[in-house]
Structures are given as C-alpha cells and as structure tokens.
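Newbie here. two chains, one complex. Structure please?
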Amino acid sequence: MSISRRQFLKATAAGVAIGLAGPPGFAGAAEEVDLAVISGEPAAATAKALETLGGISRFVKKGQRVLIKPNMSFAKGPDIAATTHPLVVAAVARACSEAGAGEVLVLDHTLQRAELCLERTGIREACRGIPGVHCLAVQDRKFFREVKVPRGKVLERVEVVRDLLDDCVLISVPVAKSHSTTGVSLGLKGLMGLIWDRESFHSQFNINEGIADLATVVRPRLTVLDATRALTTGGPGGPGEVKRPNLVVAGTDPVAVDSFGVGIVPWYGQSFRGRQVEHLLAAHQRGLGQIDVDKLRIRRASV
Amino acid sequence: MRRAVQSLSLLLFTLLFLLATFRLPGWLPADIYLRIDPLIGLTAVAASREMIPRVLWALVLVGATLALGRFFCAWLCPLGATIDGFDGILFRKVRRPGPSGETNLRKTKYVLLILIVGAALLGVSLAYLLDPIALLTRFYALVLYPAAVAVANVLLDLLRPLTGAMGWVGLSHLRYPQPVFYMTGLTLLLFGGVISLGLLAPRFWCRFLCPLGALLSLIAPLGLFKRRVSAACTRCLACQKACPMGAIPADPLATRAPECIQCRTCAAVCPERAVSYPASLSGMGEHSRFDLSRRGAIASLGGGLTLGFVTLQSPFTFLEGRRQLIRPPGALPEEAFLRTCVRCGECMKSCVTNTLQPCLWESGLQGLWTPKAELRMAPCEPNCNVCGRVCPTQAIRSVSLEEKNHAKIGTAILKKEQCLVWAQNKLCLICDEICPYNAIVFRPIDGFRRPVVIASRCNGCGYCEQRCPVKGDSAIVVVPDGEIRLKEGSYIREAKKLQLEFKPDPGDDRYLIGESGFEIGGQPPAAPGGLPAAGPPAGTAPGSLPPAGKPKGFL
C-alpha cells in the first residue's frame, strides 16, 4: 500500500476539518466510515461490522497470510469476559478464510498455560473446521524475533512474534476489559500479546509509553473490538463485574476503536473518555490515530 | 502369544500414563495398574488404617491370581515386560552365571514383603520404594516422560524448516512444554539398578526381590492351571535351564508353584512336548510351600517394625505442619497423607503446570518422593483437578473443580522488605493482576497504593509467588498457614465455615476500591475537551507517586 495509515489519517482529519469529506479513492464508498458500531449477537454483529467497513476483502487479499490476535491470555470461559468471545474470533476468521486468505493464524502469547487457554476460552473449538484457520498459543522465545523501534521513546527494540514479520495482515480482535495497570485493556494494550518480554513493560519503564511505542511497529490493519461483554472491574484476569453492552466496534484506526471503547461503559464505576487513558493519549500524540470520538464518522446499526 | 500380550499391556500402561493430563475424561481410570496392585492397596490400607474404596480394585488381581496363578508377572506386569525387553536387547548375548537353581536368594523377596508390611503396620509407607508398578510409574513420570518431551522438541526443531516450508502451521508452531523434576537422578538410579540386575540372571528382580511378586506367589499355588510333566520326559533339563524364574527344581517333574509365573517357556522348549498346563484343583505337594522359615519371617517382621520405628522417630514427625511445604490441593491431613501416598508420581506427571515436584528430604525419610507444590516455579491452576483424579490411593482426594479450588493449600504472605512497592516505592501490580481470586488489593498507605493480601480470599494457588518480578525469592510467598486438609467431607462447606470466599461476587472490586479511599461514581474529573495535565504525568514513571484519585492507567 502506497499510503501509510498515518498519512491517511492526517488526510482524513484535514478533510473533515475543511468540510470536504473526500477520502482517498482507493477503497471507495466504504471509507466514509471510520467506525462500525454494531449491536447484536457476537457472530452476527461481527459479520455486520466487517460488512459496514466495506467487507473483509478490503483488508485481506487472496492468498495473503492473516494473523488474528484475539485475547486468549487467560484460561477462562467467555462469561468471565477476560478473553475475546470465541464467536467473534470465529466470525473474523471465517470471513478471512472466505475472502481467500492463504493462511489464517489465530495467535496469542498467553499468560497462562497455552493448552489450557486454547481449550477453556472456547476459541479453538469455535474455529475448528474453518478452512485454513489455525489456533496457536506460543509460549517459547524461539517463536519471536527482534525488531527495532525507531520511533520508540522508551522501547528501542522488541521481540515480536515471527509470523508477524513475514508479510502478513494483522487483525486485532481484543475484548473490552479493565486493567489494573493501564486502566483499560483494548486493542493497543492487547498488542502486548504479540511480544516476548512483557515483564519489562511492568518493571523497567512506563508501560503506557511502552504500549504507544509498540504500536508504532505492530500495526493492525483492522481492529475488531469485542464489547459484547465488558469486564469493568477485576481486569485483566477477572473475575470482576461483567457488563453486557452487546457491541462490536470495528475500524482501521486502532486509537479510534479503543477511544470509542473507553466510552462504552464506566470503568471501575467511573466514566472516562479516550483522552483520559494514558496509553491511548500517548499513542494519539505519536500520531497513531484519532482519539477524539466526536471527530469520527461512526455508523451504528443493530442486527 | 505371551510376548504380544505383554507388549500390549506395556503399551496400555504407557498410553494410560500419557492420557493422565488435565484433559483426562472422568470415566477413564488412568491409574488402573496402580489400583489393581494388591501390595499398594494392602500397605496403604494397613498404614492409613482406613478403608480406601479405590484400592478394592486390587481384588480383581487377587481373584485372577487365585484362578490363574501368578500369571500377572509374565503376562501383564509392565515392569516385567520392560525387564524382558531389556533382557532381549542388552543381555541376551551376555554369559550369565547367575545363582544356581537351588539358591536361597528367592527368600529375599519374602523378607522384603514382610519388612514392608511390618513397617505399614506401624503406619509407615515403604511399598513405594520397591513396588514394581509404583517404581515404573515413577520412572516414567520423573525420567522417561521429560526425556521423551525433550527428544520430541529436538525433532520438532529439526523439522521446523520443513514443516514451515510445507505450510504445516500447527506442526511448525508446536512445542511441548518441557517438564522438569527434582529427584530425576535418584529415580533413574533405582530403575537402572532393577534393570541391570538382569546382568546376573534373567528376571533377577522378579525372582528374588519383587515384593508384589512375593505377595502374589503366596496365593499362586491355588491357581487352576498347573505344570504337569508327562512320562515322555527324558530329564534333559532343557526346561530347567530355560525357566526364567528358577521354578523348576532338580527334579524336572516337579514345580515350585509359588515361583511359576505361567509363562509356559518350559512347554515351548521341551523337545518331547512333555510339559502341559491342564486345569487341576489339586495342590502341588512340598513344592507349593514357600521358602521362608518361621524364624526368617519373625526376623523380617522385626526388621520391618524397626524400620518403621526409625522412620517415625525423627524431628520431622514433630515438625509436621511447621515446615514450608505446600501439598497438592485435596491432600489428606499430613500424617494420613504420608501413610497413604505411594509415590507413583502420577500426580506430578499429570500436573498441568509442572508445579508438583517430588520431595527429597523436606519431610524426612517418611516423605521421600511425596508431591509438593513448587509455587515459585509454577502455580496451581484453578482449571485443573487432575492430581486427585489420578491418585490410586486417594492420598490426594479426587474432587470436583469447585471443591478443589476450595481445598486451600496455603496463604500468600507479603514480605514487605522485599516488595518493590513497599520497600522501594516502585509501581508494580503484577501479583494483583495475576491473582485469579482478587485476593490482593491496593490500599493507599503513606501516600502510595500498596498491595495487601486478603487472606480469606487466598486459596494459595501461587500465581502471585510465581509472577513476582523480584529476583530470587519472591516478595509474596505461599505458606501452609490456613491450608484446608480434610479426610472427608466438603471443602466448600469447610471454607464457608471458615468464612473464606474464593469466588468473589462480580463488582466486589468496587467495594474494595471504595474501602481503599478511591472515589466511586464521582464526576469524570477532566475538563471537557481539554487535556489533563500536560503530557504523561511524572507520577506514573517507576519510582514516583501514582495518582491517588483514580484507578491506575487513567489520567
């Protein structure tokens, strides 16, 4: 792609500002939407969200490798809301498969034992039988490779999942949950599931800056936020209070999706906006996306 | 025919061993070989003075032996099959002088049996050391299984270029978690000893040492099928030389009934086809008695009682419960646990996180190879209850997941002088983040939010201890204090009685945050549209004050 997301976002923002809603032409009418916010059952809402954005084929070309990054870090069932709903993951995976993706990896670096996570989150079961889709949980350093972070403030280099480095389309499919360190854990925080060393984020530098740094090198083409349930306290692992917004939020701008996600429910009993989440603000300030929800073109629907 | 059955039996044993994982289906008794072992059952019941329903399976083997004689050793015993296998591979071409057919060595196994039973009468479990099924299971668990995983991983690594190129995604990303254990060397030594005894004579172990063989031989002469030699016998003694058990005395027409394991080798080698095994109810005369004299028996019993006494008389007995030793969830009260556990290692093999490890000296001679949880290495997983389900003597009780998660194994204690937050005012919440039970909360103390353990919510799973980023000893450790060890009854009920709560109501966090001084349900504090304090506040860098009014991560 000849135009970077950043350039695209700048152009879009400028276009909005001067009242000429003319997006770059490469994706047609679908580009009129920044965010698809669909309410409904997990599978149907996910499918509708992809459709609203112009269809998965906008992001996934025939024969391309796709890496879907759900949150399956904890060996817990969907009711706890610490992990992405299996039907949301499966809906995205199925769409990729049907769009002719060469290979679809559903992959996470899990916190708890890999086997248990694959099994208890229900994600492997939900993806079973979809052609070309493989559910993997990696827990060994050999599956990671180091990359430089040229625009990093606190992060100079980071080891990311090997599969990501091969030319492949990253689709982030996070769950909406609270997080005891970063406030919320949505798409950007979820990208920490693609790196090897997470301890240093907690112990060596400001994790919020680290997340923003990481987002400069690990860049999802699409983020599909599962807010069918939201773990509003007790995150990231739960158990905690589970609210049921019944929403799926999708968009190409990871900051925008997350920022919208922040406003869906009160976290820890308080209402917040995207700007109040430190790591989102840091990412926004790095030019990684639009944090102000009122500047986004949002299409809502329910199925 | 016998080789085939033997191999199948070893295969079944191996298969059941491999199936002993957290995914074990409820109906499948992965520990069936251990359950049908009457020596394990007898000593566990004798030592614990309790009836253990699961060991009643041993009656199956006792019954079969009453009907068929000591067939188990030749046809089913996985250690017997292993010994025969090694025999074929290693020792076939070695000249083995061996003990003569008339040796008294075969008494040794009875001495050992009586020693073991004698010690069991005093409440000391020793069967584990020499019982063939326990010994082999332990070898599988602590030596063979880790070795097999290591080999499998090397092969996967070697094949990775190929599997990657072929697009076999699952295979190219496959890596088995490497299990590691203490006591691997010692376990290997014991097993290696048993195998290398084959250098002296075929089935040396089975003939002279195996206490299970000794126990079965006591009832074997009652078996239905007995060796009979017809008049065609030319006394060529081919059968006597071939008998792996030395069961054929100087007179080849006779048979030492307790020693005969029904392998039918004699029938196969007889050039005259004079040997048959007809069904017969008669006894076998003088050769059906077993060899130990009364004096020998009494001496052995005395030895067993002495051994039991020596084992019990140690400070370890008095220090019970005062040591840093975390037992698996559902483990019986310590004394009963030590009496009942057969150290087979099934629990350690099946443990999904590899936290269960064999003890060396932590609880004395009595506690060798008993399982403990090594929580700094790995936690006890709330989603898994397999250790109790595979325990053949129920030294670890088989209970539901819900029950198991209430079988508190200890309580986390925060060592403030080591904790990054308490001692160095650093920002760290890992223990809180990882705790599956919300047992760690943060309270503002001296202007900092510091972690505190709510003991009534902690079931000792050890996630905090394992994850604590402090180098060396964890700043939060699980100690046995508060562990719930029940012989019977419900852990849930007991936990309720003690006012413990391991599954907080959703929303409880809010209460705890409220209690800790945070604003609940207040106005969103930032001015609309405006940025909060410019840039990321210095407060969130490690080593300085976190913002106190809001949950962490929010500005």
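Moderator note: Residues 5-17 of chain A form the longest helix (13 residues). Residues 109 and 138 of chain A are 5 Å apart (CA to CA). Thread marked as resolved.
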